[in-house]
Amino acid sequence: MDFRILDASAFYAGVPFRSSDDCYTTSSVYDEIKHIKKNHDALGTLLETNRLKIREPDKDSIIAAIKASKDTGDFPQLSKQDISIIALCIEMNGEIISDDFAIANVAKNLCLKISPIMTQGIEDVGKWIHYCPGCRTNHTKGKECPMCGTLLKRKLLKGESLSVPLNE
Question: Where does the record place the Ribonuclease PIN domain (predicted)?
Fold first, then answer.
């Protein structure tokens, strides 16, 4: 069965309106986008014809999505809607349609299928770390270096070898 799991950017790009594939989303994403084409009730038509299905991911999938996003360092960039889409993809083993780089990084780290809409998508997958440009230390989180007070910057550690010493 061909189906896609859509985040808000997929709706804004019109994906479900020009596709014959079944589409899934979560109620939190639907609440975010339900104003789209309201005058023509396009979303209502998709729901009535069963081409758009609203489904909530199970608790275990949500926990797995949160853990994966924390492992990659993307968690602070993700909304609850984003987490719900990743969790639904984990549960259903579908294909996420999104242009969100944080969603894509988490999904690719989980070996989930993800397709971009209006961008080329991401090429580099990895783990985000925070680093101090002043004292050259790496940290798992924070905005300011606990050692010297310099504002931390973020960088993506590419690939699977993520054995960089990190400070809390």
Answer: 5-91
DSSP state, 75?
G
User: Looking at the domain 3-115, which fold is it?
Assistant: Rossmann fold (3.40.50)
Cα–Cα distance for residue pair 135/158, rounded to 1 Å: 22
Domain residue spans of the chain: 3-115, 126-158
Per residue in 15-38, pLDDT (tens digit) is 888 877 889 999 999 998 887 766
pLDDT in tens, 103-124: 998 998 899 999 988 666 566 6
Tokens 């990659």 — which residue?
72
Given a contact cutoff of 8 angstroms between Cβ atoms, the answer to whether 144 and 167 are in contact is: no
Q: Which residues touch 89 (CB under 8 Å, ≥6 apart)?
A: 5, 95, 96, 107, 112, 113, 114
What's the pTM value of the predicted model, to 2 decimals?
0.74
Which residues are 130's β-sheet partners? 139, 154
